[in-house]
Amino acid sequence: MYTQAMDLAPKEERKAVRSAEEAVLEERFEARIDAGDFIEAKDWMPEHYRKTLVRQISQHAHSEIVGMLPEGNWITRAPTLKRKAILLAKVQDEGGHGLYLYVAAETLGTTRDQMLAALHSGKAKYSSIFNYPTLTWADIGTIGWLVDGAAIMNQVPLTRCSYAPYARAMVRICREESFHQRQGYDSLLVMMKEGTDAQREMVQDAVNRWWWPSLMMFGPPDAESPNSAQSMRWGIKRISNDTLRQKFIDACVQQAQVLGVTLPDPDLKWNDARGSYDFGPIDWAEFWRVVGGHGPCNRERLAARVKAWDDGAWVRDAALAHARKQEAKQQEAA
Ligand SMILES: [Fe+2]
Ligand SMILES: [Fe+2]
Predict the structure, then answer these.
(1) Rounded to the nearest whole angstrom, what is the distance from the C-alpha of residue 63 to the centroid of ligand 2?
(2) Nearest to residue 57, comparing CAs of 9, 92, 89, 13?
(3) Distance, CA 179 to ligand 1 centroid (Å)?
(4) What is the pLDDT of residue 21?
(5) Which one of 57, 72, 87, 255 is most buried, by most CB atoms within 10 A?
(6) Within the chain, which residues score under 50 in pLDDT?
(7) Ligand number, closest to the Cα atom of 149
């Protein structure tokens, strides 16, 4: 689902001294990037490029599986069989997205165990949007509309990312995200057009709570996003945080009008000269607070992931024991 924390990495160490051979390789690499070539797992790449991608793809993978938690919470409480089936499919998709992405990151020389250990220890980040609670059924529709909607905006440019295994994973993920966005919007539309006043109020309340955190999903303003410039040069990132955020806002205003909900920003106003909507100030202090571990559900989310890992230990042990047994049998037969 999400890709926001990508620029929030700790400072990478860069090698000050390069061998002559490395300098040649790096020059060739840069030329390929400039020519718009895709880089494959077996190709030579600078260490900093590799590390940047491991960080970004693993954070993205973590976001997919942590993103299952706020919605999974509503599977047993979905109002109809149809909505339950849709939500089950969506949450399952997010698990699949996590898997594609962990595998894409593994092509860069890291392991699933290393990535999960970083998540469980709190060292690795995931999208901070999932640290907000889902209070009513309307939150599920709103997450589909706004959170998956923002994810699509963020992720479509990643289908042209210079690292080919990541780009390929994103093609498939984006197709599924578009279903996620539509099912959310459809669910809200039914509540707004055919529902009761109480249901309409529930939708408005959910939109009020999710709107601003959704805008934060695009990451800090360009001027405060120091790693962005390098990622843009390397073709990992294609469009800046602020440009994507503006595109998302412009799309949402019309969708909100069709729904009949009010976006909770009194400064939202069409600007003819810019050809876009102006919007009010984003509370970046809140964003950094949540990224820093102090959002409403940070502890709960991490605890749920750690518990799932611990509870699944016997499955992993059994699978390994079975694989060893099979291997021993095959060796005997040979
Ligand atoms: Fe999604
Ligand atoms: Fe996803």
Answers:
(1) 8
(2) 9
(3) 8
(4) 87
(5) 57
(6) 5-15
(7) 1
